[in-house]
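Hey all, quick one. A colleague (J.T.) asked me to put the BES job into the tracker so the inputs and the structure tokens live in one place instead of scattered across chat threads. No bug as far as I know, just bookkeeping. Sequence used:
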Amino acid sequence: MCLRHADVPSGSTNVAHGREVLPTNVKPVHYDLTLEPNFEKFTYDGTVIIDLDVTEDTNSISLNSNEIDIHDATVSVKGAVVASNPEISINKDTQVATIKFSDSVAAGSSAQLKLIFTGCLNDNMAGFYRSSYKMPNGETKYIASTQMEPTDARRAFPCFDEPALKAKFTVTLIADKSMTCLSNMDVASETDVQASKKAVKFNTSPLMSTYLVAFIVGHLNYIETRDFRVPIRVYATPDQDIEHGRFSLNLAAKTLAFYEKAFDSEFPLPKMDMIAVPDFSAGAMENWGLITYRIVDVLLDEKTSGASRKERIAETVQHELAHQWFGNLVTMDFWDGLWLNEGFATWMSWYSCNAFYPEWKVWQTYVIDNLQGALSLDSLRSSHPIEVPVKRADEINQIFDAISYSKGSSVLRMISKYLGEDVFLQGVRNYIKKHAYGNTQTGDLWASLADVSGKPVEKVMDIWTKNVGFPVVTVSENPNASSIKLKQNRFLRTGDVRPDEDTTLYPVMLGLRTKEHVDENTMLTERESEFKVPDLDFFKLNADHSGIYRTSYTPDRLAKLGQAARNGLLTVEDRAGMIADSGALASSGYQKTSGLLSLLKSFDSESEFVVWNEILTRIGTLRAAWLFEDSQTKDALKTFQRSLVSAKAHEIGWEFSDKDDHILQQFKGLLFGSAGMAEDPTVVQAAHDMFNRFAAGDLSAIHPNIRGSVFTIVLKHGTEKEYNVVLDRFFNAPTSDEKTTALRCLGAAEDPALIKRTLDLASGDQVKNQDIYMPLGGLRNHPAGIEARWTWLKSNWDAIYKRLPPALGMLGTVVQLTTASFCTEEQLKDVQAFFQDKDTKGFDRAVEQSLDAIRAKVSWIQRDRADVETWLKTNSFLRDGKL
Ligand code: BES
Ligand code: ZN
């Protein structure tokens, strides 16, 4: 992009660090913002008066504005108008409005910029937007809500839309008297405007970034708790049962109190509101004092939702509350520091979830969830460093990904183990205190941690945040010297690392586990080093998988570790992490897939949910990669899965009782689903029985923990009859969780006519944009579904592009979803060809990452097709006659 292009007003942008940012001639101090939404025309009228500190003599002011019609501008200094109706030019590309006037304003003065504008209450879930819900009588109603992060505050009102340009906000909303108006702060005054309207003025906020501003207008119900120092409320539209907010409400009260202690810093706002918004592009958003949520991520009906939904809500609520300090009070200075926000909130939500629900053992889950998510994406050539330069608005949305969230939090988990959790948290407290109401860079966090620990934190951590990727550590053994030799190399899923891509030497925290001890201090900092091990009989690297790396053992050692697992020498995290490593190493060619299969087979006596979960994930990954292979091999893999899972599934059963703890509920659900998908006849029969009773009107016949599995098992070979039953639940179930579970499952139906119905549903307007990935995702388990949805994307590209403008982030998800399931060379070429001549701005990462993922599968299959077949034969899952 050329910034000197003729239509760019000079001085409208500044390219510090190569970033497209605003010039620094003025600095916003305070916004007085008034907005009046119109629910008939879906527009809003706005006035903003921005107090500015002038830092240079100037006769132009540039600020961000996107799709807003600015009618009128006035610049004044100390009440005297300097310019009325000055020239306003808009650069659509950089989303900057520049106001030019002839009398210049002197450096050191305070100026006021008043803008009068009209905006559109759009239906794109960005800026100030409309969100709809249906009343029981079928009537569609609207609320107006906001989503500003990362760069859509400029879509709601003209503003200096950069995280470091913090200012105070005084918001006034004008609406019908029957409506509720909410913003970040509490209400200062309510006055009548005409007979039917009111103006609700909110108190002035503390210094904050524009991306955290929020306002909401609509008919809303709420519940409130006074269990915390300031009132907390959960709001929802009248079509929802507001009592379903009780779990989140109570958890928020406990969590805010917990965080005040953990951060040693009082929550600075006078209230905390949380609202379920019917249309919401992400899961939730941490607006200061007014957190917005997707309905399913905040409202819980314990009677009709399963344990995993409850856990997700707890995670989401705690994540957004953690941001109230980490993100809102202390904010990254620009978006390349996004990981500070998201990585930390992720780590913190796990930390507090573990404190409140120790029986959920969430840190075990972390190893198969965030850690694997991080390693998976970061094993692609098209990954990026945690601290990634982002220049333009359309690049920012794309880094809300597993690198910022999961690798970011994994880096923090690693350093917290290295320093000790208490020292780590003390450093965080100091950091919060030092930078409250300010902006930081990654180095500021490292400095606080170094101060408190006396350890060279920056030196160690910089390498992890500034470089892409992570290493695989190859272990060779020297029995004579009782030592192990370790060598690190960059790990790529495609297994084709070039020397120039393998130049970073990571400080690898080895976490060497021996019989009595875990060594948390030793690091591998060189390419290769030798380490003494007290007893080569038993050792394992990466204890609890606190380090960000994969370990490649010899096949012999891997077998011994399998034995050690059975002998109780390894923790749950060790077992799950070891399986994950083995799976990743097999799929990338560092080990043989037969080795993985043998390892998995040796875990048939495993007792823990998290380990089983990883075992089944890895079989799932293998089966997904082999999806376009011949049916005999695929059947053999299915038989293998059944042989592993059936006995255990039958043992723990699929009857649920109130006495089942949180993990057991999910364990039963996991094994039932897996056995059913592997066509265990008893499970399939049970699924059909439950489904038939359900279809006949007994809605309690299917337990919420296995609702999705039962639907999927039955739909797989189902007809229109079963499809219609599930579809009816999408339309008519009372809760959003039940509706969306049904929507996610429809794609399991393999009948071509039913595949078409699923795709038609995705195209139509009965599925909200926020949920469009759900019917599409359901098609991923069968070749016909995968092919049909790709054809659908190709033939409807223009309409889909229009429906999901790339700047909003959802198009990337849909592109990834519709392409990443492919496994063959021809499919790879097809995807490549389709996007070759398209403008992929706003979703180019998604395309690249999909292509990389397909490439990795193509090579995996080529490499290990015969190896897998031989193993399946040797182990009698495949008859010898084949080939
Ligand atoms: N700040 C994000 C919301 C967000 C996401 C804004 C993407 C803009 C683009 C929020 O704190 C968040 O991370 N939400 C998560 C939930 C969380 C439990 C990981 C989400 O939306 O999935
Ligand atoms: Zn977040």
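Adding what we noticed when we looked at it: Residues 844-874 form the longest helix (31 residues). Residues 1-11 have pLDDT under 50 and may be disordered.
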